[in-house]
Each structure stands twice: as structure tokens, then as C-alpha cells.
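Reader question, answered in our methods column.
A reader sent in the components of a multi-part assembly and asked whether the whole thing could be modeled at once rather than chain by chain. We filled in our standard form and ran it. Here is what they sent:
COMPLEX SIZE: two components
ENTRIES:
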Amino acid sequence: MITFEHVSKVYPDGTHAVHDLTFDAPTGKLTVLVGPSGCGKTTSLRMVNRLIRPTSGDILLDGESTNGMDEALLRRRIGYVIQHAGLFPHRTVLDNVAATPRLSGASKRQARLIAGELLERVGLPATFASRYPWQLSGGQQQRVGVARALASDPDFMLMDEPFSAVDPVVRSQLQDEFLRLQREIGKTIIMVTHDIDEALKLGDQVAVLRTGGKLAQLATPEELLTAPADAFVADFVGRDRGYRSLGFVAAAPGLVVRSEPSVPIGSSVEDARAATDDDWLLVVDERAHPLGWVEPRTLRAPISFSDLNLSGTVAHRTGTMRHVLDASLSAPSRRGVLVDEDGALVGSVTAAEVVGSLAEIHAAGVTTGGTAS
Amino acid sequence: MNLDWIVRESDSILVLLVWHLGLSVVPVVIGLAMALPLGWVAHRSGAFKSVVLGTTGLLYTVPSLALFVMLPSILGTRILDPLNVVVALTVYTVALLVRTVSDGLDSVPVETVQAAQAMGYRTLQRLVSVELPVAVPVIAAGLRVAVVSNVSVVSIAALIGTQQLGLLFTQGAQLRFLTPIIVGIVLCLVLAVVLDGLVVLLARRLTPWTPRAVHA
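And here is the structure of the entire assembly that came back:
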């Protein structure tokens, strides 16, 4: 556990970067610090490994005060990941990762062995080991950065905007992989981000800071969406709170899924028109995975990929209500496509049916319900 | 050109060449050793940095001949002592390289330095195993200038009679005889090119990690 006890940081010019911050980052959990620029989130993070010294207050690691600890030794106990990875340009990928176990006293051989394992763990092929950082993409560098932080097997990790320097597709992929990794390794993590969506997606708990370094609310992501403490938090969490809070509601087992007519890609015009009376028909591949929608009336030749309308998203039957509702709203037929764990077609639901089942869930008191102001 | 003269004098020309080599290289080695800590101080000294760099840079503006003549009285050496030349050129090398080392350390990406600090490197450990290796390309560029300029400045010491290729110039001028002057110029050029090439090679050996331009 990382404990902040009345921690403040005041700069000589009188600026309060952090003001009387008190909270716990529980063992094995990911705590996200989020807030607008100037809210002191990065300052707070850097006070944990004393890159910045608090003006007053204390930060404890598993109950032990960091005040007066040898700073280098303290830092070796805490993994650190930053925005642009900050890799050593003069060392190979393998030796970059081996640097932290080396600092903790491992032999060169041993450190490289550990580094090799970690590269595999963060999803980098062994062929990358001998490359230099400039030969890697931003996303790959970030993976190396994570591997390096984990290589000394620290109990604690600090992450400063770790995924914000890469494009949205890679970011989402890195986030998913990191969540999976964290479930296996269970480190005690504090992460800083300015991106509320990232905070809600990754955090076990989220601390929202306001300008001047004051804690506005510390809560689970779901609580932040459904019960923001004040207007600042509500505003920061943003619009679409009601909709986004559906991301924390599991797709209801009671949701009535109708069977959806479908034809395989390459079907003839006649088969397509015979399959449905509706304006839109779902097209699947040979494994029954949904591909897209066609309008049978406008077909002139057997269905090809260029005929497909790809606007509809696909939701997993065991996913969240947010995905299910989005699938129904995005499909041109207004019928949301549901698939099973393997991605094969299960059936469809309409937005009205999804909202209806939400009302039932709400009435049954299964969730706290959307009370966004 | 008088080839007979060259053949006849080849032994003494070789002696002058070796002296020239030594007087060029030794000050660079000593100067670099001194510039590393000084450059690090400049790099770390924030607001005072321009003061430190300005002061060392000023040394470079002292005319070399004046330095060669003044040093014996400061050091208590004889006027012909090669030590005067070594000290003078070391002063110039330091003047050049302090800025180079400081620039080199400035060129290390902020994220890299921060990451090293956050990982728990101690200050000296970080300097030796992270900052200096990353600064090598910039430092090597400055070192090339220092080596080549030393080869040329050493010859000025001929005016106070120190053994090196510059003596060929004074000799040629006194005898109104062109051959020694041409030999001196050619050997100085060759020496400069060879030493410059050695610095480049050494820098490449130290930086296998830099992106190399691919030439078709």
C-alpha cells in the first residue's frame, strides 16, 4: 500500500502544487490520479519516489515512511514508466530492460535472462532483443518501458501518462494488454493521466484532483459516473455519463435476443432476397462471424465485400450494456448484432429492447442506476 | 621540389613528424580529461553556465605566440622546453572541449536522464553509464575540431624553436627554399587527416547504436 498523509508541495514562489493530499493506493490495485493540467497529479506521483520532495506531510510504502530513505535505494524498489518511455538510446532493447535488475544487484547474465522473459511477457518477439530503441515504434518503445519497470520485480509502480504518446488504436491495445498483465502480476500502482476515459477504463479506483492539488473525489470508476461528488467532478467526468456508466453494467441475462436472418458472403441475389423481408440483411463469413449489412433490393450480383455496410458494431453476449446498446444504435437495420465468445452470430436486439431491460435492472436495484445531473 | 634534399633529410623530418604528432595528441588527451569534469560542472550550473563557458572560451582568444612566450615565466620552464607547448595547447583544448562536453551532456534526451534518475541510478553512475555514452557523438565532433586545430597551432611553436614540423617552415623561409615548406604542409595535412579519421573511427566503435545513413 502507498499512503499519502497530508502531503503538500509549495514552490518558493508560493504556488500550491499539491495541497494536503491524503489517500491510500491499496496493495495490488491500480489507483489513477486524474485531473486538468496544473492539478498537481504528476507532482504527486513524483513525490512518491522523491524526484520531488514534499514540503510537508509523508508518503509511506507499506507503512514505512519514505522521508529520509536513501533515494536511490527507494527508487529501485519502485518501477517507473513515463510518457515517451525514456529508453537508453545507447543500449539494446534487452540491455534497456536488464538495467533495472542490474541496479538491484543481479549479474549481467541473470539480468539478461530476466529481461528476455519480460520482453516476451509484454508481447515483444525475441528478435527485438538486439535492436536499438530508435528502430522501434512508439508503441513498441512503451512496451519496453513497461518491461524495464517490471524487470526488477518491484512491489510498487508509478506510471506517468504511459499510453498518451501513441495513436488511439495502439493506445487501446496497450491498455488492454496492460490490464491483462496487471491481473496476473497484481502490482500496487499509481498512474497519472489527463484522459478521464483511460482513468475509468484502467483504474480500480480513481482520484480526481482539482487545480491547486486538492483531492476532489476518490471513488471507483462506476461511482464517479453515477455519483460525482460535486459540479467540478461531474463536469470533468464529462458528458454522456449516463451512457458511459452502462460500460459497468453487464449485459442482462434476461435480454431477449431474437434470431437474425443471415446469408454467407458470396450468396446470390435470389438467396439474399429470399432470406428476409426486411430492408437490411446480415452477411456472415463461413464461420458465422458477422461481416456487415446489405440491402437485398439494391443487389445486382452475388454479395461481395464492396456491397457491405460496415457501420454496425458487434457486441459480445457477455459484454456490457454499453456495447449492446451501441451495437443496436450503430447498425443500419437498428438491430444490434450479438456474438458468442468465439465471435459467432447469436442474434440481435433493438435499442428499445436494451433500454427496456435497463429499466428492469434499475427496478430490481441490481445497480446504483444512472443519476447523472 | 628538391627530392635529393627530402631523401637526405628524411631522418630528421621523421623526428620532427613524431614530435609534431606527440605535441598535437598529448594535449588533446590531457585536455579531454580536464574538460569532462569542467563540462559536467558547466552542464549542471544552470544560470552560471554562460559564465563558466564564457570564461573558458575566453582562453581560446589568447594569441598562441603570446602564450608560448609567457608560459616559461609562469611555469619556470626554459623557453625551448616542449612542456610550454603541451601546456599551451592543453589550455586551448580545454577551452574548446568544455563547451563541447557541456553541449554533449545537454544533448542527452531529458526523458532518458529522468528515467535513469527514477530507476535509482546515483549521480556519478548515471553520468558514466548513461549520460557520457549518449553524449559521445557531440563530444567526438568537438574532439575532431580540437585535434585538427592542434596540428595547425603546434607549428606556430617553431617561432620559439620547439622541435616539430613548423621548423620546416622557418627553415624554408630563412633559406628561401620551397621544398621544406611543401613537405611541412603536406605532412601537417596528412597528420590532420589521419588523426581526424582515428577520432571518427573511435567514435563509431563507441556508438554502434546511432542510426547510420544508408548510402546506395
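What stands out: The mean pLDDT of chain B is 89. Chain B touches chain A at residues 109, 111-112, 114-122, 130, 133-134, 136, 207, 209, 211 (CB under 8 Å).
Send us your own complexes using the same form.
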